[in-house]
UniProtKB/TrEMBL annotation, chain A:
MF annotations from Gene Ontology: ATP binding; ATP hydrolysis activity
Protein name: ABC transporter ATP-binding protein YvfR
Keyword Repressor: no
Domain ABC transporter: 5-229
Organism: Lentibacillus populi
UniProtKB/TrEMBL annotation, chain B:
Keyword Cell division listed: no
Membrane spanning stretches: 21-40, 52-73, 107-127, 133-154, 166-184, 218-238
Organism: Lentibacillus populi
GO MF annotations in UniProt: ABC-type transporter activity
Identification of the protein by name: Transport permease YvfS
Annotated membrane topology: Multi-pass membrane protein
Pfam families linked to this entry: ABC2_membrane_3
PANTHER family xrefs: NODULATION PROTEIN J
InterPro entries: ABC2_TM, ABC2_TM_bact-type, ABC_2_transport, Nod_factor_ABC_transporter
Domain ABC transmembrane type-2: 20-242
Amino acid sequence: MSNVIILENVSKKFGKVQAVNNVSISIEKGSAVAILGPNGAGKTTTISMMLGLLDPNEGKVELLGKSPKQVAVRNKIGAMLQEVSVMDMLKVHEVLTMFRSYYSSPLSMEELIALTGLEKADLKKKADKLSGGQKRRLGFAIALAGNPDVIFFDEPTVGLDTTARRKFWNKVESLKEKGKTIIFTTHYLEEADDFSERIILFNNGEIIADGEPEDIKRNLTTRSVSFETEDQDAIAKMETVDTVMRCYEKDGVVYVVTEDTDFVLSELFRLNISAKNIRINQGRLDDVFEQLTGDKEEAEAG
Amino acid sequence: MKGILTQCRFEVIRIFRNPYYVFWSLMMPIAFYFIYTNVFNTELPDQDEWQAHFLMSMTTFSVMGSAVMNFGIRMVQEHTQGWARFMKITPFPSWAYFSAKMFGQMIMHLLSIIVIFTVGSIINGIALTAGQWIAAGAWILIASIPFLALGSLIGTMKKVETASGVSNILYLGLAILGGMWMPMEAFPPLLQNIGEWLPSYYFGSGAWEIVLGNPPELLSIAMLIVYMVVFMYLAIFIRRKRQV
């Protein structure tokens, strides 16, 4: 598989603020990648550098094997960016005609309409008079106008309601099936989990996790058994137990992370560890993100 | 190439759909023209000459307005709305985008010239030769380019409010001091001296000479070229500096 995007040791500073710090990413052709992170994590800066809108202070960016600023590259990419309003005084179908004229092999108007869910009635409206949701659909259509191989979505669903969000992702699914490479940023873990094959988790301008959603989740959202004990060897003992993924101590409490809490409990008694205040902690999907970014902050503080 | 043509077409459509264009660039100068040549009795010795002179004044006033106000403010708008940034990720080159905008503006200027000339000549029955009409129209169209350069200089501003305020003051200042509203001879000497350094005066002057049967003075052409170069240089300089 060839890489469509390569970032090598890329850093970007805005004044004194280190927005992106020594980031390396390779993205395979045809994959769907989520860049996940809290606000201000460096997601948009990273996407902007991938697109050639910002130059990194250090490092190298390649898009489709070339500089993202080359016309040949731009002909094969599409994007939905934040804070871009629609050109005024033009009707929706005119905006689409205009954008289609920029590319050497654009999608037909019919395909665009079918792919983006724009309605016939919307086409004749003035682009700047559309509602928020309709504007987003137009933005989506503009991103696809050139029949791109690589598509970028920067926070595509912010401000959309649940229904509109689901519709949007259904459309993205159909693009994935067509073999497009999709890169999107989001601060909703759920979206990253549902629609990507790979999550790159950003915090404070750095990558703190990179892998399949399942892996990231497995490592962090499993349940744990926690207890207090005087037994110095408790962690070592529990680590030998089947199904235990890791053990650690925090604030005098031993945590045993596992897929099977029942089994760990029975082993805890079988091994005769004198434990007090035994609890079973339910891992929640939503915590993954907080946990990862939280761990990161602690590591930095420590 | 097809891309540029499509873009030119849409730029023209965008300009004509703008209601401010019709009002400020066409209605206002025509209304002024009517009032100054018919309602107020100027009691000038040569009424015909004044009417032709003032028609040129109002046409240059209109065209200068679209170049300075419309062009510049729209550029700032597209910038603040993220549009200019978005265009960078399309394969459509920015020089082509800029050219299409210039083209749209020139079409708009041409239309203003045709409409104001036609309405003005109907109102007052101005008798100019076909050659004079064409020469005056061509002069106003071509000599509007330095004002587009001034517009693009205003287009480097960061806020629409600033751009709109500055261009309003510039526009009215240039128009009045350049003798577009009343002949410069009516000014006190100090203002006349200022006026003689302004591009708007030379813009009007070329057309005023043509309706008198003379070619535009070389000084007018030279001054306009100097202004154009200065405005363009400044606009490019500011943009470059900002990119670093």
